[in-house]
Amino acid sequence: MEKIMISEMPKHVGEEVRIGAWLANKRSSGKIAFLQLRDGSGFVQGVVVKADVPEDVFAAAKAIHQETSMYVTGTVVEDERSAFGYELQVSGIEVIGESDNYPITPKEHGTEFLMDHRHLWLRSKKQHAIMKVRNEIIRATYEFFNGRGFTKIDPPILTGSSPEGTSELFHTKYFDEDAYLSQSGQLYMEAAAMALGKVFSFGPTFRAEKSKTRRHLIEFWMIEPEMAFTEHAESLEVQEQYVEHIVGSVLNNCKLELGILGRDLSKLEQVKAPFPRITYDEAIEFLHKEGFDDIQWGDDFGAPHETAIAEHYDKPVFIVNYPTAIKPFYMQPHPDRDDVVLCADLIAPEGYGEIIGGSERIHDFELMKQRIEEHHLDPEAYAWYLELSKQGPVPHSGFGLGLERTVAWISGAEHVRESIPFPRLLNRLYP
Ligand code: 4AD
Ligand code: MG
Fold first, then answer.
1. Which ligand is located closest to the Cα atom of residue 189?
2. Ligand 1: does its nearest atom lie under 6 Å from the Cβ of 348?
3. Which of 123, 235, 327, 393 has its Cβ near the most Cβ atoms within 10 Å?
4. Which of 33, 67, 97 is the last residue before a domain boundary?
5. Which UniProt keywords apply (predicted)?
6. 224, 405, 420: which to mutate for ligand 1, most atoms within 8 A of CB?
7. Atom 17 in ligand 1: which residue has the minimum CA distance?
8. In terms of domains, do 92 and 132 share one?
9. How far apart are CA 165 and CA 140, in angstroms?
10. What is the pLDDT of residue 126?
11. Total number of domains constituting the chain
12. Is residue 168 in contact with ligand 1, taking CB distance under 6 Å?
């Protein structure tokens, strides 16, 4: 008998098959047992009818507990009532391992309890769906960039430099030297873009940020494309096409998961390029009109500001040209104004906040040298980076998309802690 995955059942209707599975949930009476089975690839209902199976099989169905592992044999049948569309008419159950008072039951549990049991919580239907959405976004990311001539480049994680400011660095010893966990691979991606033209990275980044919000992780994964001979306006076009592509891919390939998550699809279906662009100046003016008296030109936006701006649109919105003073050292000045830079943050709808930060980079040697000095960065640590603007410098632009914020937005999860398998938060390194 063929051993298959639950996700393969549509190809095996009418056949008797064998699956490895855990019991997710169960309902039973004297004559029939309904087993919610999961195998990692999906969830299916197994129906055990007392009159149709040997006595020991029905006894096993009655005895198993939530998360008991087993091999189950049965016939795949179509079932219009289930979201999956199929069920298994069980003919045999072979228990592999018992479960011992599985702590996460179908009742409500508090968030801290679930976070303490994250190693088990991942097995639940909603968490499973979010991980599937995450995987689809990663798959679609490779598809998008590989399809457009980008080369995947892996920047180092142990570094001596800090693109996004020195206040949020994780420090470690590198033998006798000081090192930091990467907060962004950007500077290395710029070097790589000068070698390979268009590059993208996908890897973990670290921020020792004492923020405890639904948008902040200490360790998060970032996709960082970088493009030579590319001005900022062209980079914005790549960004909106990329975001349209990942949202479209999830809509096409994760229908079951979005259903489980109860996601409002009409909101996602509107995410089509082009996205609106407003300047930082316009954003400040808009906020003042909306009654936000707390913010002044030159301030960075907080979550309530971003949410108010995003609520005005049904698509993600670019806020362009932020003040030079609140952005990192490497950003290209606006051609007509000294006080703003050629950059943009992409703000997701529905209160999910900034999902992309990007900019054109300085490629003038003197200006870059001056900025490194102004920001009190160690000239030795940045010597290699500065050298890039001496060796055939070209206009170049890039951006970083935060994977977890994007997963949270697309899957409708209320907090980024659910969009990464094992979140690192301000007060959490366990499990
Ligand atoms: O805006 P950020 O800091 O930009 C950079 O790091 C640039 N060097 C990227 C580049 O141009 N190559 O971060 C980029 C994105 C943010 O828009 C956000 O989505 C995500 O990374 N991000 C976080 N996600 C979760 N937790 C945090 N603490 C995050 N900090 C940034
Ligand atoms: Mg940012």
1. 1
2. no
3. 235
4. 97
5. Aminoacyl-tRNA synthetase, ATP-binding, Cytoplasm, Ligase, Nucleotide-binding, Protein biosynthesis
6. 405
7. 356
8. no
9. 31
10. 97
11. 2
12. no
Q: Mark whether 337 and 249 lie in a shared domain.
A: yes
Range of the domain at 190: 119-419
Smallest-distance ligand from the CA of 165 = 1
CA-nearest residue for atom 11, ligand 1, is: 399
Distance CA(10)–CA(19), nearest Å, equals 14
What's the CA gap between 252 and 6, in Å, rounded? 20
- The answer to whether residue 108 is domain-embedded is no
Confidence (pLDDT) at 122? 98
52 & 180 share domain: no
State pTM to two decimals.
Answer: 0.97
Residues 186 and 325 in one domain: yes
Q: How far apart are CA 131 and CA 114, in angstroms?
A: 16
- CATH number reported for the structural domain that contains residue 34 in this entry: 2.40.50.140
Output the pLDDT for position 160: 87
Mean pLDDT by 10 residues, the chain (431 residues): 96 98 96 98 98 97 97 97 96 97 94 98 98 99 99 96 83 94 97 98 96 95 98 99 99 98 98 98 98 96 97 97 97 97 97 97 98 94 97 98 98 97 96 98
125: left (phi over 0), alpha (psi -120 to 50) or beta: alpha
How deeply is 203 buried, as exposed, middle or buried, from its count of CB atoms within 10 A (0-12, 13-18, 19+)? middle
pLDDT of residue 163: 77
196 lies in the same domain as 87 = no
One domain, residues 89 and 129:
no
The verdict on 292 and 344 lying in the same domain is: yes
Q: Is residue 430 part of a domain?
A: no
